[in-house]
Design a protein that fits this description.
Layout: H1 3-33, E1 36-44, E2 52-58, H2 68-80, E3 84-88, H3 100-112, E4 116-119, H4 122-126, H5 130-139, E5 143-144, E6 148-153, E7 158-163, H6 174-178, E8 186-190, E9 207-210, E10 219-220, E11 224-225, E12 227-228, E13 232-233, E14 240-243, E15 249-252, E16 270-278
Parallel strand pairs: 1-16, 2-3, 3-4, 4-5, 7-8, 8-9, 9-15
Antiparallel strand pairs: 2-16, 6-7, 10-11, 12-13, 14-15
Length: 279
């Protein structure tokens, strides 16, 4: 093979490499900035036959900035018309100073549905504005349920909604959150991190909704997440549905935002629409 032929092959490989890099950059941008709605169905014996509850879960908003995608997402949430909206932590980033953008989104969510609930994540705890942020949520109609519970009902059913403070930093008090609930009712538990399943009382919840993992952000085919916070390499609980026991289901939402690296691969940003029906 002549030098000219070698140079031609090298040029072709360089062009192919640049094209692949370009496609990768476009894919990462799309996965980070164009969230999808992940639809999930869970069955429970505690839901009356013919009844159902639709829950919209938002998790790990982090550093997502207001833009046209925001408005598209809000339009989609309005069309979904959920019975409840739950925010499972890290709604702000540890470095978030200006809360106006977050408050603007919160006000629109509460307009869509006043039954909006929130639990803290590790980034709320790391942010110097945590106290004023939580007050701001409450003042705008969001129910903050860190280590406590509430009761929600409509004309079909009544459920318990329990929430715990951030499990990843040891601030969750599950016993306090579920103390006094009517155990005959369906119990929804909100927690930021899936570490909550290590608590013995976890089986008193019928459905546990978490975030925190970001789904690993970067995933590999047939492998899943490479790494997740608190679990290390190739985590067991990264995203999706897990059966903790016969009556307790864990669902981990991979979230909207990103961590230190603003990258997602094979792991598109998302919100979750969870429908709970009777068995």
């Amino acid at each position: 093979m002549s030098i000219q032929e070698v140079l031609q092959w090298m040029l072709k490989l360089a062009v192919i490499g640049l094209l692949l890099i370009g496609l990768l950059v476009v894919d990462i941008y799309f996965e980070v900035n164009y969230p999808k709605v992940n639809r999930v169905t869970v069955n429970s014996e505690k839901i009356p036959p013919g009844a159902k509850i639709n829950i919209l879960q938002i998790s790990d908003f982090h550093n997502w900035q207001p833009n046209d995608h925001h408005q598209n997402l809000l339009r989609e949430i309005r069309q979904l018309n959920p019975d409840l909206i739950v925010i499972t932590g890290d709604f702000i980033d540890r470095k978030t100073d200006n809360l106006n953008n977050v408050y603007s989104l919160v006000e629109e969510l509460v307009q869509i549905n006043p039954y909006t609930f929130f639990v803290c994540g590790n980034h709320e705890w790391a942010n110097k504005n945590k106290k004023s942020f939580l007050s701001g949520l409450s003042n705008r109609g969001v129910r903050v349920i860190n280590n406590e519970h509430a009761v929600w009902f409509n004309n079909q059913l009544t459920i318990n909604i329990c929430g715990v403070d951030d499990p990843s930093k040891g601030r969750a008090d599950l016993d306090k959150a579920i103390n006094g609930i009517n155990t005959e009712l369906f119990t929804l538990l909100l927690a930021h991190a899936p570490a909550i399943i290590e608590k013995e009382a976890i089986t008193r919840a019928d459905l546990v909704l978490c975030g925190h993992t970001h789904g690993g952000q970067i995933r590999l085919p047939f492998v899943g997440a490479i790494i997740a916070p608190g679990q290390g390499l190739f985590p067991t609980y990264d995203k999706g549905i897990y059966n903790i026991d016969r009556n307790t289901t864990l669902y981990i939402d991979s979230g909207l935002g990103t961590g230190v690296l603003p990258i997602r691969f094979l792991n598109r940003s998302q919100i979750s629409f969870i429908t709970v029906t009777g068995k």
